[in-house]
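Morning!

This is the sequence you dropped in the shared folder:
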Amino acid sequence: MARKVSLRARLRYWFDNTMSRGTTGLIGWLAVASFGLVLLVTVAIEIVDPSAMDGDPLRVLWTTFVTAFSLSAPTDAGWILLPMWFVLALGGIFVASALIGLLTSGINRRLEQLRKGRSAVLERDHTVVLGWSDQIYTVITEMVEANASRRRAAVVVLAEQDKVTMEDRVEHRIGDTGRTRLIFRTGSPLDLKDLEMVNLNEARSIIVLAPDGATAEDADAYVLKTLLAINKGPAFRGRPHHVVAAVRDSRNRAVAKLAGGDAIVLDGDDIGARLIVQTARQSKLSVVYHDLFDFGGDEIYMTVEPSLVGRPFAQALLAYKQCCPLGLLLADGKTVLNPPPGTMISPGDRIVLLARDDSMITLATAPFAVDDTAIVHGVRGPAAPESTLILGWNRRAARIVEQLDVYVAAGSTVDVVTDRADATPAVGRLAPRLRRLLIRSKAGDTRDRGVLETLDVASYHNVIVLSDDDLDALTADSRVLVTLLHLRDILAGRGPGSIVSEMRDDRDRALAQLTKADDFVVSEQLVSLLMTQISENRHLESVFADLFDADGAEIYIRPASYYLRAGATITFATVVAAAARRGEVAIGYRVTDSGDEHGVVLNPDKEQVMPPIDRVIVLSSS
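The structure's back. C-alpha coordinates below.
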Protein backbone atom coordinates (compact mmCIF):
# COMPACT_ATOMS: atom_id res chain seq x y z
CA MET A 1 0.00 0.00 0.00
CA ALA A 2 1.44 3.38 -1.04
CA ARG A 3 2.46 5.65 1.82
CA LYS A 4 0.61 8.99 1.98
CA VAL A 5 2.99 11.94 1.78
CA SER A 6 1.93 15.26 3.31
CA LEU A 7 2.11 18.56 1.46
CA ARG A 8 4.65 19.80 3.99
CA ALA A 9 6.91 16.85 3.28
CA ARG A 10 6.63 17.41 -0.48
CA LEU A 11 7.51 21.09 -0.11
CA ARG A 12 10.43 20.22 2.14
CA TYR A 13 11.65 17.63 -0.39
CA TRP A 14 11.40 20.18 -3.22
CA PHE A 15 13.24 22.79 -1.13
CA ASP A 16 16.04 20.33 -0.30
CA ASN A 17 16.47 19.44 -3.98
CA THR A 18 16.77 23.06 -5.02
CA MET A 19 19.26 23.78 -2.23
CA SER A 20 21.37 20.77 -3.25
CA ARG A 21 22.06 22.33 -6.65
CA GLY A 22 24.88 24.30 -5.06
CA THR A 23 25.72 27.94 -5.60
CA THR A 24 23.07 28.46 -8.31
CA GLY A 25 20.24 27.17 -6.12
CA LEU A 26 21.37 29.17 -3.09
CA ILE A 27 21.60 32.41 -5.08
CA GLY A 28 18.10 31.73 -6.43
CA TRP A 29 16.69 31.41 -2.92
CA LEU A 30 18.52 34.58 -1.87
CA ALA A 31 16.90 36.42 -4.79
CA VAL A 32 13.48 35.13 -3.73
CA ALA A 33 14.12 36.17 -0.11
CA SER A 34 15.33 39.63 -1.20
CA PHE A 35 12.28 40.17 -3.41
CA GLY A 36 9.96 38.99 -0.63
CA LEU A 37 11.59 41.29 1.92
CA VAL A 38 11.43 44.33 -0.38
CA LEU A 39 7.85 43.58 -1.34
CA LEU A 40 6.81 43.10 2.29
CA VAL A 41 8.36 46.40 3.42
CA THR A 42 6.86 48.23 0.45
CA VAL A 43 3.37 46.98 1.29
CA ALA A 44 3.87 47.92 4.95
CA ILE A 45 4.95 51.46 4.06
CA GLU A 46 1.95 51.88 1.79
CA ILE A 47 -0.35 50.76 4.60
CA VAL A 48 1.24 52.82 7.39
CA ASP A 49 1.92 56.03 5.44
CA PRO A 50 0.35 56.11 1.94
CA SER A 51 1.74 59.59 1.34
CA ALA A 52 5.34 58.65 2.09
CA MET A 53 6.30 58.35 -1.56
CA ASP A 54 3.74 60.62 -3.12
CA GLY A 55 1.41 57.67 -3.50
CA ASP A 56 3.50 56.04 -6.29
CA PRO A 57 3.84 52.27 -5.49
CA LEU A 58 6.64 51.75 -8.04
CA ARG A 59 8.64 54.57 -6.51
CA VAL A 60 8.18 53.07 -3.07
CA LEU A 61 9.29 49.64 -4.40
CA TRP A 62 12.42 51.11 -5.99
CA THR A 63 13.28 53.12 -2.84
CA THR A 64 12.97 50.08 -0.60
CA PHE A 65 15.09 48.02 -3.01
CA VAL A 66 17.87 50.63 -3.05
CA THR A 67 17.69 51.07 0.74
CA ALA A 68 17.95 47.33 1.32
CA PHE A 69 21.42 47.19 -0.24
CA SER A 70 22.74 50.72 0.44
CA LEU A 71 21.82 50.67 4.17
CA SER A 72 20.64 54.31 4.02
CA ALA A 73 17.05 55.36 4.83
CA PRO A 74 15.42 58.32 3.05
CA THR A 75 16.33 61.59 4.78
CA ASP A 76 12.68 62.66 5.07
CA ALA A 77 11.51 59.40 6.64
CA GLY A 78 9.33 59.90 9.71
CA TRP A 79 9.70 58.11 13.02
CA ILE A 80 6.83 55.84 12.22
CA LEU A 81 8.70 54.45 9.16
CA LEU A 82 12.18 54.12 10.73
CA PRO A 83 11.52 50.63 12.22
CA MET A 84 10.59 49.41 8.76
CA TRP A 85 13.76 50.86 7.21
CA PHE A 86 15.75 49.29 10.08
CA VAL A 87 14.25 45.84 9.37
CA LEU A 88 14.98 46.34 5.67
CA ALA A 89 18.62 47.28 6.43
CA LEU A 90 19.13 44.18 8.58
CA GLY A 91 17.65 42.03 5.83
CA GLY A 92 19.93 43.69 3.27
CA ILE A 93 22.98 43.01 5.44
CA PHE A 94 22.00 39.34 5.68
CA VAL A 95 21.35 38.99 1.95
CA ALA A 96 24.51 40.86 0.88
CA SER A 97 26.79 38.93 3.25
CA ALA A 98 25.24 35.63 2.25
CA LEU A 99 25.61 36.50 -1.44
CA ILE A 100 29.27 37.45 -1.04
CA GLY A 101 29.93 34.23 0.86
CA LEU A 102 28.20 32.15 -1.81
CA LEU A 103 30.10 33.82 -4.63
CA THR A 104 33.41 33.38 -2.79
CA SER A 105 32.79 29.71 -2.09
CA GLY A 106 31.60 29.17 -5.68
CA ILE A 107 34.76 30.76 -7.08
CA ASN A 108 36.89 28.71 -4.69
CA ARG A 109 35.16 25.51 -5.77
CA ARG A 110 35.75 26.39 -9.41
CA LEU A 111 39.42 27.10 -8.72
CA GLU A 112 39.65 23.80 -6.87
CA GLN A 113 38.21 22.01 -9.90
CA LEU A 114 40.77 23.72 -12.12
CA ARG A 115 43.50 22.75 -9.67
CA LYS A 116 42.38 19.14 -9.91
CA GLY A 117 42.93 19.27 -13.69
CA ARG A 118 39.57 18.05 -14.88
CA SER A 119 38.83 20.56 -17.64
CA ALA A 120 38.94 19.65 -21.34
CA VAL A 121 42.06 20.32 -23.43
CA LEU A 122 41.46 22.23 -26.66
CA GLU A 123 45.00 21.95 -28.05
CA ARG A 124 45.70 20.67 -31.55
CA ASP A 125 48.80 19.00 -32.98
CA HIS A 126 50.03 18.36 -29.44
CA THR A 127 51.84 15.43 -27.85
CA VAL A 128 49.88 13.44 -25.26
CA VAL A 129 51.64 11.42 -22.56
CA LEU A 130 49.41 8.84 -20.86
CA GLY A 131 50.61 7.57 -17.49
CA TRP A 132 53.22 8.64 -14.99
CA SER A 133 56.64 7.20 -14.17
CA ASP A 134 60.23 8.38 -13.87
CA GLN A 135 60.37 8.13 -17.66
CA ILE A 136 58.20 11.25 -17.84
CA TYR A 137 61.17 13.52 -17.12
CA THR A 138 63.20 12.12 -20.01
CA VAL A 139 60.21 12.32 -22.35
CA ILE A 140 59.39 15.93 -21.47
CA THR A 141 63.04 17.01 -21.62
CA GLU A 142 63.39 15.55 -25.10
CA MET A 143 60.10 17.03 -26.29
CA VAL A 144 61.23 20.46 -25.08
CA GLU A 145 64.42 20.05 -27.12
CA ALA A 146 62.53 18.81 -30.16
CA ASN A 147 60.06 21.71 -29.99
CA ALA A 148 62.72 24.42 -29.63
CA SER A 149 62.18 25.61 -33.20
CA ARG A 150 58.38 25.50 -33.12
CA ARG A 151 56.33 28.61 -32.41
CA ARG A 152 53.55 26.82 -30.55
CA ALA A 153 54.07 23.43 -28.99
CA ALA A 154 52.25 21.69 -26.18
CA VAL A 155 52.72 18.47 -24.22
CA VAL A 156 49.64 17.21 -22.37
CA VAL A 157 50.07 14.71 -19.53
CA LEU A 158 47.16 12.60 -18.26
CA ALA A 159 47.92 10.57 -15.14
CA GLU A 160 46.41 9.44 -11.87
CA GLN A 161 48.38 12.07 -9.96
CA ASP A 162 47.43 15.38 -8.44
CA LYS A 163 47.83 18.13 -11.04
CA VAL A 164 49.77 20.47 -8.74
CA THR A 165 52.04 17.64 -7.62
CA MET A 166 52.87 16.79 -11.24
CA GLU A 167 53.59 20.45 -12.02
CA ASP A 168 55.86 20.82 -8.99
CA ARG A 169 57.82 17.64 -9.73
CA VAL A 170 58.41 18.53 -13.37
CA GLU A 171 59.40 22.09 -12.52
CA HIS A 172 61.87 20.81 -9.92
CA ARG A 173 63.47 18.21 -12.22
CA ILE A 174 63.35 20.04 -15.56
CA GLY A 175 62.91 23.76 -14.92
CA ASP A 176 62.44 26.06 -17.91
CA THR A 177 60.59 24.42 -20.82
CA GLY A 178 61.17 27.18 -23.37
CA ARG A 179 58.46 27.39 -26.03
CA THR A 180 56.83 24.14 -24.96
CA ARG A 181 53.74 24.53 -22.80
CA LEU A 182 53.08 21.72 -20.32
CA ILE A 183 49.45 20.92 -19.55
CA PHE A 184 48.59 18.43 -16.81
CA ARG A 185 45.29 16.68 -16.28
CA THR A 186 44.32 14.32 -13.48
CA GLY A 187 42.57 11.18 -14.64
CA SER A 188 43.01 7.55 -15.57
CA PRO A 189 44.25 6.61 -19.06
CA LEU A 190 42.06 3.52 -18.68
CA ASP A 191 38.89 5.63 -18.38
CA LEU A 192 37.32 6.57 -21.72
CA LYS A 193 35.79 9.76 -20.30
CA ASP A 194 39.16 10.88 -18.94
CA LEU A 195 40.82 10.15 -22.28
CA GLU A 196 38.36 12.47 -24.00
CA MET A 197 39.67 15.35 -21.86
CA VAL A 198 43.06 15.43 -23.63
CA ASN A 199 41.72 15.56 -27.21
CA LEU A 200 43.46 12.44 -28.54
CA ASN A 201 41.83 12.73 -31.95
CA GLU A 202 43.74 15.91 -32.78
CA ALA A 203 47.04 14.98 -31.13
CA ARG A 204 50.21 14.71 -33.21
CA SER A 205 51.38 11.70 -31.21
CA ILE A 206 50.54 9.70 -28.08
CA ILE A 207 53.11 8.15 -25.73
CA VAL A 208 52.00 5.49 -23.24
CA LEU A 209 54.05 5.03 -20.06
CA ALA A 210 53.76 2.13 -17.62
CA PRO A 211 53.60 3.00 -13.90
CA ASP A 212 56.63 2.76 -11.63
CA GLY A 213 56.84 0.06 -9.01
CA ALA A 214 54.67 -2.41 -10.89
CA THR A 215 55.77 -5.89 -11.86
CA ALA A 216 56.46 -6.54 -15.53
CA GLU A 217 53.12 -8.35 -15.79
CA ASP A 218 51.13 -5.52 -14.17
CA ALA A 219 52.98 -2.82 -16.13
CA ASP A 220 52.29 -4.57 -19.43
CA ALA A 221 48.65 -5.10 -18.46
CA TYR A 222 48.34 -1.34 -17.85
CA VAL A 223 49.87 -0.55 -21.26
CA LEU A 224 47.66 -3.13 -22.99
CA LYS A 225 44.46 -1.71 -21.43
CA THR A 226 45.45 1.83 -22.36
CA LEU A 227 46.10 0.81 -25.97
CA LEU A 228 42.77 -1.00 -26.04
CA ALA A 229 40.98 2.12 -24.74
CA ILE A 230 42.58 4.28 -27.45
CA ASN A 231 42.02 1.86 -30.29
CA LYS A 232 38.56 0.54 -29.37
CA GLY A 233 36.96 3.44 -27.48
CA PRO A 234 33.78 4.77 -29.15
CA ALA A 235 35.16 8.32 -29.31
CA PHE A 236 38.47 7.20 -30.85
CA ARG A 237 37.60 4.14 -32.95
CA GLY A 238 38.50 4.40 -36.61
CA ARG A 239 40.64 7.51 -36.19
CA PRO A 240 44.34 7.57 -37.12
CA HIS A 241 46.43 7.85 -33.96
CA HIS A 242 50.23 7.83 -33.84
CA VAL A 243 50.71 5.83 -30.63
CA VAL A 244 54.04 4.70 -29.16
CA ALA A 245 54.31 2.34 -26.19
CA ALA A 246 56.72 -0.18 -24.68
CA VAL A 247 56.23 -3.50 -22.91
CA ARG A 248 58.66 -5.12 -20.51
CA ASP A 249 57.98 -8.77 -21.28
CA SER A 250 58.60 -9.82 -24.89
CA ARG A 251 55.74 -12.30 -24.70
CA ASN A 252 53.27 -9.43 -24.30
CA ARG A 253 54.38 -7.46 -27.34
CA ALA A 254 52.23 -9.37 -29.86
CA VAL A 255 49.02 -8.99 -27.86
CA ALA A 256 49.82 -5.32 -27.19
CA LYS A 257 50.09 -4.72 -30.93
CA LEU A 258 46.73 -6.44 -31.39
CA ALA A 259 45.21 -4.17 -28.76
CA GLY A 260 46.84 -1.05 -30.20
CA GLY A 261 46.09 -1.60 -33.88
CA ASP A 262 48.58 0.63 -35.71
CA ALA A 263 50.39 1.50 -32.46
CA ILE A 264 54.16 1.09 -32.37
CA VAL A 265 55.04 -1.18 -29.45
CA LEU A 266 58.67 -1.49 -28.36
CA ASP A 267 60.11 -4.42 -26.44
CA GLY A 268 61.81 -2.64 -23.55
CA ASP A 269 63.63 -5.61 -22.05
CA ASP A 270 64.88 -6.82 -25.43
CA ILE A 271 66.22 -3.36 -26.32
CA GLY A 272 67.87 -3.03 -22.92
CA ALA A 273 69.48 -6.47 -23.21
CA ARG A 274 70.83 -5.76 -26.71
CA LEU A 275 72.25 -2.40 -25.62
CA ILE A 276 73.98 -3.94 -22.61
CA VAL A 277 75.52 -6.74 -24.68
CA GLN A 278 76.71 -4.49 -27.49
CA THR A 279 78.07 -1.95 -25.02
CA ALA A 280 79.83 -4.61 -22.94
CA ARG A 281 81.80 -5.70 -26.01
CA GLN A 282 82.64 -2.17 -27.22
CA SER A 283 83.73 0.46 -24.75
CA LYS A 284 81.93 3.84 -24.94
CA LEU A 285 79.24 2.53 -27.29
CA SER A 286 76.59 3.75 -24.85
CA VAL A 287 77.77 7.33 -25.49
CA VAL A 288 77.20 6.85 -29.23
CA TYR A 289 73.73 5.42 -28.70
CA HIS A 290 72.75 8.18 -26.30
CA ASP A 291 73.84 10.83 -28.80
CA LEU A 292 71.85 9.15 -31.56
CA PHE A 293 68.70 8.73 -29.49
CA ASP A 294 68.37 12.16 -27.88
CA PHE A 295 67.46 15.49 -29.49
CA GLY A 296 70.39 17.39 -28.00
CA GLY A 297 73.15 16.42 -30.43
CA ASP A 298 73.04 14.80 -33.83
CA GLU A 299 69.71 13.43 -34.98
CA ILE A 300 68.51 11.02 -37.65
CA TYR A 301 66.60 12.60 -40.54
CA MET A 302 65.07 11.35 -43.79
CA THR A 303 65.38 13.52 -46.87
CA VAL A 304 64.62 13.28 -50.59
CA GLU A 305 67.58 14.26 -52.80
CA PRO A 306 66.58 14.31 -56.50
CA SER A 307 70.14 14.94 -57.66
CA LEU A 308 71.25 11.58 -56.22
CA VAL A 309 68.47 9.53 -57.83
CA GLY A 310 69.96 6.94 -60.20
CA ARG A 311 73.35 7.08 -58.47
CA PRO A 312 74.90 4.43 -56.21
CA PHE A 313 74.68 4.85 -52.46
CA ALA A 314 78.49 5.10 -52.27
CA GLN A 315 78.29 8.53 -53.95
CA ALA A 316 75.86 9.76 -51.30
CA LEU A 317 78.45 9.10 -48.58
CA LEU A 318 80.59 12.00 -49.79
CA ALA A 319 77.76 14.20 -51.07
CA TYR A 320 77.23 16.12 -47.82
CA LYS A 321 79.68 18.28 -45.92
CA GLN A 322 78.06 18.19 -42.48
CA CYS A 323 75.87 15.07 -42.69
CA CYS A 324 76.57 11.35 -42.57
CA PRO A 325 74.27 9.21 -44.75
CA LEU A 326 73.36 5.99 -42.93
CA GLY A 327 71.12 4.19 -45.41
CA LEU A 328 67.92 4.40 -47.41
CA LEU A 329 64.24 4.57 -46.58
CA LEU A 330 62.80 2.76 -49.58
CA ALA A 331 59.59 3.75 -51.30
CA ASP A 332 57.82 0.73 -49.74
CA GLY A 333 58.57 2.02 -46.21
CA LYS A 334 61.39 -0.40 -45.45
CA THR A 335 64.64 0.97 -44.04
CA VAL A 336 68.01 -0.44 -45.10
CA LEU A 337 71.03 0.81 -43.17
CA ASN A 338 74.46 0.48 -44.71
CA PRO A 339 73.23 -0.93 -48.04
CA PRO A 340 75.83 -2.31 -50.45
CA PRO A 341 77.83 0.60 -51.96
CA GLY A 342 76.48 -0.16 -55.44
CA THR A 343 72.82 0.08 -54.40
CA MET A 344 71.09 2.52 -56.76
CA ILE A 345 68.95 5.26 -55.26
CA SER A 346 65.50 5.02 -56.87
CA PRO A 347 62.77 7.65 -57.25
CA GLY A 348 60.76 7.77 -54.03
CA ASP A 349 63.69 6.62 -51.88
CA ARG A 350 64.73 8.85 -49.04
CA ILE A 351 68.23 9.10 -47.66
CA VAL A 352 68.56 8.35 -43.95
CA LEU A 353 71.29 10.56 -42.56
CA LEU A 354 72.81 11.92 -39.40
CA ALA A 355 72.78 15.71 -38.99
CA ARG A 356 72.92 18.22 -36.18
CA ASP A 357 69.93 20.10 -37.57
CA ASP A 358 67.74 19.83 -40.64
CA SER A 359 69.06 23.23 -41.80
CA MET A 360 72.45 21.58 -42.33
CA ILE A 361 71.15 19.00 -44.80
CA THR A 362 72.64 20.55 -47.92
CA LEU A 363 74.79 19.06 -50.65
CA ALA A 364 78.47 19.95 -50.76
CA THR A 365 79.39 22.51 -53.40
CA ALA A 366 82.64 20.77 -54.43
CA PRO A 367 84.14 17.27 -54.21
CA PHE A 368 86.18 16.45 -51.12
CA ALA A 369 89.87 15.67 -51.31
CA VAL A 370 90.55 12.04 -50.37
CA ASP A 371 94.11 10.92 -49.54
CA ASP A 372 94.31 7.43 -51.07
CA THR A 373 97.83 6.95 -49.74
CA ALA A 374 96.54 7.12 -46.17
CA ILE A 375 93.97 4.35 -46.69
CA VAL A 376 94.85 0.80 -45.71
CA HIS A 377 92.78 -2.36 -45.64
CA GLY A 378 93.62 -4.02 -42.36
CA VAL A 379 92.51 -7.57 -41.88
CA ARG A 380 90.74 -8.54 -38.72
CA GLY A 381 91.79 -11.85 -37.30
CA PRO A 382 89.30 -14.60 -36.45
CA ALA A 383 87.16 -13.89 -33.43
CA ALA A 384 88.62 -15.34 -30.24
CA PRO A 385 86.57 -16.82 -27.40
CA GLU A 386 85.55 -14.28 -24.77
CA SER A 387 84.96 -14.56 -21.06
CA THR A 388 82.22 -12.50 -19.47
CA LEU A 389 81.36 -12.00 -15.80
CA ILE A 390 77.81 -11.01 -14.85
CA LEU A 391 77.40 -9.66 -11.33
CA GLY A 392 73.77 -9.63 -10.22
CA TRP A 393 70.54 -10.87 -11.79
CA ASN A 394 67.23 -9.47 -13.00
CA ARG A 395 64.46 -10.28 -15.44
CA ARG A 396 66.65 -9.16 -18.39
CA ALA A 397 69.63 -11.33 -17.44
CA ALA A 398 68.51 -14.41 -19.40
CA ARG A 399 67.90 -12.27 -22.48
CA ILE A 400 71.36 -10.68 -22.05
CA VAL A 401 72.99 -14.10 -22.04
CA GLU A 402 71.01 -15.17 -25.12
CA GLN A 403 72.07 -12.03 -26.98
CA LEU A 404 75.68 -12.53 -25.91
CA ASP A 405 75.52 -16.03 -27.36
CA VAL A 406 74.73 -14.50 -30.77
CA TYR A 407 77.85 -12.32 -30.87
CA VAL A 408 80.67 -14.27 -29.22
CA ALA A 409 82.87 -16.95 -30.75
CA ALA A 410 82.42 -20.62 -29.95
CA GLY A 411 84.10 -21.65 -26.72
CA SER A 412 83.24 -18.43 -24.90
CA THR A 413 82.17 -18.49 -21.26
CA VAL A 414 79.88 -16.47 -19.02
CA ASP A 415 79.94 -16.67 -15.23
CA VAL A 416 76.99 -15.42 -13.18
CA VAL A 417 77.44 -14.40 -9.55
CA THR A 418 74.35 -13.39 -7.58
CA ASP A 419 72.55 -13.95 -4.31
CA ARG A 420 69.11 -14.19 -5.91
CA ALA A 421 67.50 -17.59 -5.45
CA ASP A 422 65.77 -17.55 -8.84
CA ALA A 423 69.04 -17.20 -10.78
CA THR A 424 70.27 -20.80 -10.48
CA PRO A 425 67.08 -22.40 -11.88
CA ALA A 426 67.03 -19.82 -14.67
CA VAL A 427 70.64 -20.60 -15.58
CA GLY A 428 69.79 -24.31 -15.63
CA ARG A 429 66.96 -23.73 -18.11
CA LEU A 430 69.10 -21.40 -20.20
CA ALA A 431 72.21 -23.58 -20.60
CA PRO A 432 70.79 -26.12 -23.14
CA ARG A 433 69.68 -23.31 -25.47
CA LEU A 434 73.14 -21.74 -25.81
CA ARG A 435 75.20 -22.62 -28.90
CA ARG A 436 78.52 -20.89 -28.30
CA LEU A 437 78.53 -20.03 -24.62
CA LEU A 438 79.27 -22.14 -21.60
CA ILE A 439 77.36 -20.68 -18.65
CA ARG A 440 78.18 -21.21 -15.00
CA SER A 441 76.60 -19.77 -11.89
CA LYS A 442 77.80 -19.13 -8.36
CA ALA A 443 75.91 -17.92 -5.31
CA GLY A 444 77.37 -14.85 -3.68
CA ASP A 445 76.69 -11.29 -2.61
CA THR A 446 78.27 -8.99 -5.20
CA ARG A 447 78.67 -6.29 -2.54
CA ASP A 448 80.93 -8.55 -0.50
CA ARG A 449 84.59 -7.65 -1.05
CA GLY A 450 85.65 -11.19 -0.18
CA VAL A 451 83.36 -12.68 -2.87
CA LEU A 452 84.70 -10.30 -5.52
CA GLU A 453 88.34 -11.01 -4.65
CA THR A 454 87.83 -14.74 -5.26
CA LEU A 455 86.60 -14.15 -8.82
CA ASP A 456 89.84 -12.97 -10.48
CA VAL A 457 87.89 -10.17 -12.17
CA ALA A 458 90.93 -8.93 -14.12
CA SER A 459 91.02 -12.16 -16.14
CA TYR A 460 87.64 -11.50 -17.78
CA HIS A 461 87.25 -9.72 -21.07
CA ASN A 462 83.96 -8.09 -20.05
CA VAL A 463 82.16 -7.43 -16.76
CA ILE A 464 78.44 -6.60 -16.57
CA VAL A 465 76.95 -5.33 -13.30
CA LEU A 466 73.15 -5.65 -13.28
CA SER A 467 70.58 -3.74 -11.26
CA ASP A 468 68.19 -5.89 -9.19
CA ASP A 469 64.63 -5.19 -10.35
CA ASP A 470 63.16 -6.85 -7.24
CA LEU A 471 64.30 -3.78 -5.29
CA ASP A 472 63.34 -0.14 -5.59
CA ALA A 473 65.51 2.00 -7.87
CA LEU A 474 67.35 3.76 -5.02
CA THR A 475 68.37 0.55 -3.26
CA ALA A 476 69.20 -1.30 -6.49
CA ASP A 477 71.43 1.50 -7.81
CA SER A 478 73.12 1.83 -4.42
CA ARG A 479 74.09 -1.85 -4.58
CA VAL A 480 75.49 -1.36 -8.08
CA LEU A 481 77.57 1.60 -6.85
CA VAL A 482 78.95 -0.46 -3.95
CA THR A 483 79.97 -3.22 -6.36
CA LEU A 484 81.60 -0.74 -8.76
CA LEU A 485 83.59 0.90 -5.96
CA HIS A 486 84.95 -2.48 -4.87
CA LEU A 487 85.83 -3.38 -8.47
CA ARG A 488 87.67 -0.08 -8.97
CA ASP A 489 89.76 -0.69 -5.87
CA ILE A 490 90.44 -4.34 -6.65
CA LEU A 491 91.45 -3.76 -10.27
CA ALA A 492 93.44 -0.55 -9.75
CA GLY A 493 93.91 0.07 -13.49
CA ARG A 494 94.24 -3.59 -14.52
CA GLY A 495 91.73 -5.27 -16.96
CA PRO A 496 89.13 -6.36 -17.78
CA GLY A 497 88.37 -5.20 -21.30
CA SER A 498 85.32 -3.23 -20.16
CA ILE A 499 83.00 -2.80 -17.19
CA VAL A 500 79.38 -2.00 -17.98
CA SER A 501 76.89 -1.19 -15.24
CA GLU A 502 73.13 -1.06 -15.56
CA MET A 503 71.40 1.74 -13.64
CA ARG A 504 67.71 2.34 -12.92
CA ASP A 505 67.80 6.09 -12.26
CA ASP A 506 69.65 8.38 -14.66
CA ARG A 507 70.56 10.70 -11.78
CA ASP A 508 72.73 7.93 -10.32
CA ARG A 509 74.83 7.81 -13.49
CA ALA A 510 76.75 10.92 -12.42
CA LEU A 511 77.74 9.13 -9.20
CA ALA A 512 78.59 5.95 -11.08
CA GLN A 513 81.02 7.87 -13.30
CA LEU A 514 83.16 8.47 -10.22
CA THR A 515 83.84 4.72 -10.14
CA LYS A 516 85.46 5.04 -13.61
CA ALA A 517 83.55 2.16 -15.14
CA ASP A 518 83.56 2.18 -18.93
CA ASP A 519 79.85 2.49 -19.71
CA PHE A 520 76.55 3.02 -17.97
CA VAL A 521 73.31 1.81 -19.46
CA VAL A 522 70.05 3.21 -18.10
CA SER A 523 67.66 0.93 -19.96
CA GLU A 524 64.43 2.74 -19.16
CA GLN A 525 65.94 6.09 -20.09
CA LEU A 526 67.12 4.80 -23.46
CA VAL A 527 63.71 3.27 -24.13
CA SER A 528 62.16 6.65 -23.27
CA LEU A 529 64.48 8.35 -25.76
CA LEU A 530 63.49 5.87 -28.45
CA MET A 531 59.79 6.37 -27.75
CA THR A 532 60.16 10.14 -27.97
CA GLN A 533 62.12 9.96 -31.22
CA ILE A 534 59.56 7.63 -32.80
CA SER A 535 56.70 9.84 -31.59
CA GLU A 536 58.19 12.62 -33.71
CA ASN A 537 58.88 10.39 -36.74
CA ARG A 538 57.30 6.94 -37.00
CA HIS A 539 59.78 5.90 -39.72
CA LEU A 540 62.52 5.82 -37.08
CA GLU A 541 61.06 2.57 -35.74
CA SER A 542 62.47 0.65 -38.70
CA VAL A 543 65.82 2.47 -38.36
CA PHE A 544 66.19 1.46 -34.72
CA ALA A 545 64.93 -2.05 -35.42
CA ASP A 546 67.74 -2.47 -37.98
CA LEU A 547 70.30 -1.12 -35.49
CA PHE A 548 69.30 -3.61 -32.80
CA ASP A 549 68.91 -6.59 -35.11
CA ALA A 550 71.91 -8.92 -35.02
CA ASP A 551 71.35 -9.64 -38.72
CA GLY A 552 71.19 -5.96 -39.67
CA ALA A 553 73.69 -3.12 -39.66
CA GLU A 554 75.11 -2.32 -36.24
CA ILE A 555 77.42 0.27 -34.75
CA TYR A 556 81.01 -0.79 -34.18
CA ILE A 557 83.94 1.09 -32.67
CA ARG A 558 86.98 -0.35 -34.42
CA PRO A 559 90.71 0.38 -34.33
CA ALA A 560 91.76 3.12 -36.73
CA SER A 561 94.58 0.87 -37.97
CA TYR A 562 91.98 -1.16 -39.89
CA TYR A 563 91.34 1.87 -42.10
CA LEU A 564 94.21 4.37 -41.95
CA ARG A 565 97.98 4.49 -42.09
CA ALA A 566 99.49 5.48 -38.77
CA GLY A 567 100.67 9.08 -38.54
CA ALA A 568 98.83 10.29 -41.67
CA THR A 569 97.32 13.79 -41.66
CA ILE A 570 93.86 13.36 -43.14
CA THR A 571 90.33 14.77 -43.21
CA PHE A 572 87.19 12.91 -42.21
CA ALA A 573 86.33 12.55 -45.91
CA THR A 574 89.29 10.17 -46.18
CA VAL A 575 87.96 8.20 -43.20
CA VAL A 576 84.55 7.92 -44.93
CA ALA A 577 86.18 6.73 -48.15
CA ALA A 578 88.29 4.18 -46.25
CA ALA A 579 85.25 2.73 -44.51
CA ALA A 580 83.23 2.68 -47.76
CA ARG A 581 85.88 0.48 -49.41
CA ARG A 582 85.21 -2.06 -46.68
CA GLY A 583 81.44 -1.85 -47.22
CA GLU A 584 80.93 0.25 -44.08
CA VAL A 585 79.67 3.73 -43.23
CA ALA A 586 81.89 5.89 -41.03
CA ILE A 587 79.88 8.15 -38.71
CA GLY A 588 82.54 9.39 -36.29
CA TYR A 589 85.69 8.65 -34.36
CA ARG A 590 87.08 8.32 -30.87
CA VAL A 591 90.20 9.85 -29.35
CA THR A 592 91.25 8.23 -26.08
CA ASP A 593 93.55 11.01 -24.85
CA SER A 594 91.37 13.91 -25.94
CA GLY A 595 90.85 15.34 -22.46
CA ASP A 596 87.15 14.87 -23.02
CA GLU A 597 85.31 12.48 -20.74
CA HIS A 598 84.48 10.09 -23.58
CA GLY A 599 86.47 11.30 -26.58
CA VAL A 600 83.58 10.37 -28.91
CA VAL A 601 82.85 12.66 -31.88
CA LEU A 602 79.94 11.96 -34.24
CA ASN A 603 79.29 13.45 -37.66
CA PRO A 604 82.33 15.73 -37.97
CA ASP A 605 82.79 18.12 -40.87
CA LYS A 606 84.26 16.16 -43.80
CA GLU A 607 86.82 18.89 -44.44
CA GLN A 608 87.95 18.78 -40.83
CA VAL A 609 91.56 17.69 -40.35
CA MET A 610 91.52 14.74 -38.01
CA PRO A 611 93.48 14.57 -34.75
CA PRO A 612 95.41 11.35 -34.11
CA ILE A 613 92.41 9.07 -33.67
CA ASP A 614 92.38 5.69 -31.96
CA ARG A 615 89.14 4.28 -33.26
CA VAL A 616 86.62 4.78 -36.05
CA ILE A 617 82.87 4.53 -35.40
CA VAL A 618 81.17 2.74 -38.27
CA LEU A 619 77.93 1.13 -39.36
CA SER A 620 78.70 -2.39 -40.48
CA SER A 621 76.89 -5.61 -41.17
CA SER A 622 79.62 -7.74 -39.61
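Headline: The longest strand covers residues 153-159.

More detail when I'm at my desk.
O.
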